[in-house]
Amino acid sequence: MIVDERITDYMNSLVQELPPYLRELEKTALMESIPIIRKETQTFLKVLISMKQPKRILEVGTAVGFSSLFMSEYMPEGCSITTIEKMPLRLEKAKKNFMEANLGEKVTLLEGDALIILSNLAKSEPFAFDFIFMDAAKAQYMNFLPEVMKLLPIGGVLITDNVLQDGTVAESRYSITRRDRTIHSRMREYLFTLTHMEEMETSIVPVGDGVTVSVRIK
Ligand SMILES: C[S@@+](CC[C@H](N)C(=O)[O-])C[C@H]1O[C@@H](n2cnc3c(N)ncnc32)[C@H](O)[C@@H]1O
């Protein structure tokens, strides 16, 4: 936890209740240890969507569809979501959850590895997504970034979740267990790149497990 637990609990106590079907989905996902966006991140995402008023959202990392369904509650009329997932069991659950939510063509689920799908999308629909939410394998963010840049127009917003990794990203490499060193260095490389790209303005926000908010300016 990056932010003091007491403060997080207080902040979350002020959050408005989710619609009942999302509350149920959140409960089930947490019970099944499926990693979904935290309460604080939910609120932040809701505000960013309300500010940006996107036309097309792209999500990398669907899991069982919680965050897609959450975003669909707050996106403007006419907006659609394309979301990518590769794990068969999660895909099945996501399909079921989308069907039950009766969203029709508002949500498109793309099945397979994000790197391949992103690169195909970049060819078929360049600069088509004005709001991109990255919430997949953290070690791959750096690989996803060049494809994401081919999909994000000027003025588009890129949100990346879990960038502070419970604060460990700020620790020296030598204090990180050998097992976690690759992810540690890849995340640092991602954050350095993102904050030094001339095409982007980026802020690292200590919300949830750390979120970057980037706006494409060039
Ligand atoms: C943190 S979960 C997503 C949670 C979801 N955004 C939510 O909040 O409800 C990350 C998901 O990304 C998927 N994932 C990881 N690497 C991927 C890849 N290369 N291609 C597609 N999906 C990937 C995982 O299978 C996992 O379900």
* CATH architecture field: 3-Layer(aba) Sandwich
Q: Report strand %.
A: 15-25%
Proportion of helical residues: 40-55%
The order of strands across the largest sheet is 3-2-1-4-5-7-6
The CATH C-level name is Alpha Beta
- Mean model confidence by pLDDT: 95
User: Would you give the CATH topology?
Assistant: Rossmann fold
For the terminal residues, how far apart are their CA atoms? 34 Å
List the quaternary state of the chains.
single chain
In the CATH hierarchy, what is the superfamily?
Vaccinia Virus protein VP39
Q: What is the 3D shape? A: globular
Give the low-pLDDT segments. none
The helix/strand order is HHHEHEHEHEHEHEE
- The count of domains is 1
Question: What does it look like?
Answer:
With 218 residues, this protein is α/β, with parallel strands linked by helices. It has a single domain, classed as Rossmann fold. Strands 3-2-1-4-5-7-6 form a seven-stranded mixed β-sheet, with helices on both faces. The protein is globular, with a radius of gyration of 17 Å. The model has no long low-confidence stretch (mean pLDDT 95). Bound molecules: S-adenosylmethionine (SAM). S-adenosylmethionine binds next to helix 4, strand 2 and helix 6.
In short:
This protein is an alpha/beta fold and 218 residues long. 44% of the residues lie in helices and 17% in strands. It contains 8 helices and 7 strands, in the order αααβαβαβαβαβαββ.
